[in-house]
Amino acid sequence: MDDRSSLRFGPISSAAEGPLYQQVIAAVVREIGAGRLAPGDMLPSVRKLASDLLVSVITTKRAYDDLERAGVIYSRQGVGAFVAPAASDALRSDALDHLKTALRDAIAAAARANVSDTQLIQILRTLIEEAHRT
What we know:
Elements: H1 20-33, H2 46-53, H3 57-69, E1 73-76, E2 80-83, H4 87-112, H5 117-133
Antiparallel strand pairs: 1-2
Helix pairs in contact: 1-3, 2-3
């Protein structure tokens, strides 16, 4: 990506919810999801991003390491970190895992409230319709 000015990694804050390194991870994921970072795009160096976000190099390094383990980015020694070709697939897989967990929780909550499967499906359809209207 040529225009780094459009990237929005911040703000990262100790006052915000979650550890700083997770906020950095979320910011990178957000940029990929928004299309401002595409497969093959180079990420800012660990030191540059740490400086820009006013966090420690250790925080940024941990975020990059976690993103690499998840298959979202890859590193080339002495060159830098890049968005992985399969970043969208890795993010989609992770999102689907979170979705399945949320749906399992919803099913359990419905059972506790004596909501039938038919009622639960209707509630889900109604929520989907509402989401599409907004």
